[in-house]
Specification:
- This protein is mainly α.
- Helix content is 77%, strand content 1%.
- It contains 16 helices and 2 strands.
- It has a two-stranded antiparallel ribbon.
- Strand 1 and strand 2 form a beta hairpin.
Length: 315
Amino acid sequence: MIAFLVKRVGQSVVVLIGVSIIAFILEHLLPGGPAKAILGGRASPFQIAAFNHANGLDKPLWQQYGIYVWHLLHGNLGRSYKLNQTVNSVLANDLPKSILLVGSALVLSLLIAIPIGVFQAVRRNGIFDYAATSVSFLLYSMPSFWLGIILILAFAVNLHLFPAEAPQGQSIGSIISDPRAMFLPVITLTLVSYASFTRYMRSSAIEALAQDWIRTAKAKGLSQRVILFKHMLRNALIPIATLVGLSLPSLITAGIVTESVFNFPGTGFRFINAASTEDYPLLLGIIILIGVLTVVGNLLADITYAVLDPRVRYR
């Protein structure tokens, strides 16, 4: 197991180095260079030269990359000159709110999708299976922004049950204190995630139920509950573990559209604003964070694979 973890961590480090190189190249491909992109098109040559000297942008590229990596290793993602804040402080304020939104939707979708997917596998080709499959295909094919608008029209405009806008507080406490306003954005993300999880869970459970060791367990006279939850579920959850690991970057990316629809003050909404205001340091800082979350998500998925199925780490 230790050798398996060392190998996976080593691969993750290599990928992170690649991510840092790509982000460094993107920074230097900005129109007019980083200085002009940050200071604006009206910046004078003197101001650009002073900015380059202050930030080490007048040094050779290999030295600039070394400084860039050194800052990244110390958690320094740059400074947003549009907001006059460090990128770290902006993310420290917005990221917990996005984690609350997307994390709540992820947990809720798993709690719904796993039992429904198992029940569909056990009662496959029945009325419930066909109905649940139709609902999953409908939700899976529906863009999240469209689903959010439909929910706003139904529950906010017509029925007046929930607010059309998400909570506007600047802290986790203020967000939690308004659960009614959180309902629609959480349900939007939950339905989209559920559609994907339940299809994978159903297929994985059907494949697991067809294995020889399941027939052996039935021949021993074990109850269906023991077979499903003790023998089948652990193996059927392997694809779900991959999806959950790959969903880690969605703490930012999945919320970009949904946060914009519901005006939720999270990292996704901040990313849209940074793109519209040409706040390049903030954009690149968020991209770096997405890359790190992607690598960490894949690493966690590999580790979960090894825990659920020991055959994986022996290969």
